[in-house]
Amino acid sequence: MPENVAMSDRTRVVREPQRAVYDRETIYKILDEGFVCHVGFTADQQTFVIPTMYARVGDAIYFHGSAASRMLRGIGAGLSVCVTVTLVDGLVLARSVFNHSMNYRSVVALGKAAVVDEPGEKLEALHVFTEKILPGRWNDARQPNEKELQATSILRLQLTEVSAKVRIGDVEDDAEDYALKVWAGIVPLRLAANPPIRDERCDASLAIPPYALNFRR
Question: Exposed, middle or buried by CB within 10 Å (0-12, 13-18, 19+), for 88?
Fold first, then answer.
């Protein structure tokens, strides 16, 4: 049996509850597939939602940015955050405009993020960021120096209050609309990479690394 996250009033899916998912395996698979999360927070009576890169390590996610950013200064001081990740898997074209939809997988995580100060954990978080995008890249490229580490803030959010919402399946039309002479179906979507483009100052003798040439998601 998959391990379920303890559901709270804040993470319980209210609208379309049949699409709710609370097991960690499904939630973590969604998080591991995504590249960008959106971090919501309120500072100076203004709400902000900021996109940023992230990575999961165990039961926590790490995200980062400039040490001078308002988001990271505010969150580091103990502001509550809402972190969301969404993957779109397909366009659902119904016979009526009202019943058009999307197949998707999404995660919402709530809590207070903590600043990562320990140098070893900070460096490991950057390692995980890099390897999540392209496994093998960390050892090929120059790794962060002390100045770069100081200019970067890393925050950790424990995945304690978290839930997912998933929509899969076919078109759902009203019964009377199935007789309409309107095309209906699914347009599947996926992330695909084009061939790598060499930097104009890159040594022409260097072969394109396999992880760039054969990128798949």
Answer: middle
- In this structure, what is the dihedral angle of CA atoms 214, 84, 117, 141, given to the nearest 10 degrees? 10
Q: Please write the tens of the pLDDT for every residue from 20-73.
A: 788 899 999 999 999 999 999 887 788 889 899 999 999 999 998 665 566 666
What CA–CA distance (Å, rounded) separates 108 from 20? 11
Distance of CA 86 to the CA centre of its chain: 6
Chain centre distance of CA 134: 15
State both tokens at 213: 């040439």
pTM equals: 0.88
**Each residue's pLDDT tens digit, 107-116:** 999 999 888 8
Q: Chain centroid to CA 54: how far?
A: 7
Structure tokens at 103: 């197949």
Q: Degrees (nearest 5) of the Cα angle 87, 89, 16? A: 75
Q: Given this model, what pLDDT does residue 46 score?
A: 84
> Residues 6 or more apart from 57 whose CB is under 8 A from it?
124, 125, 128
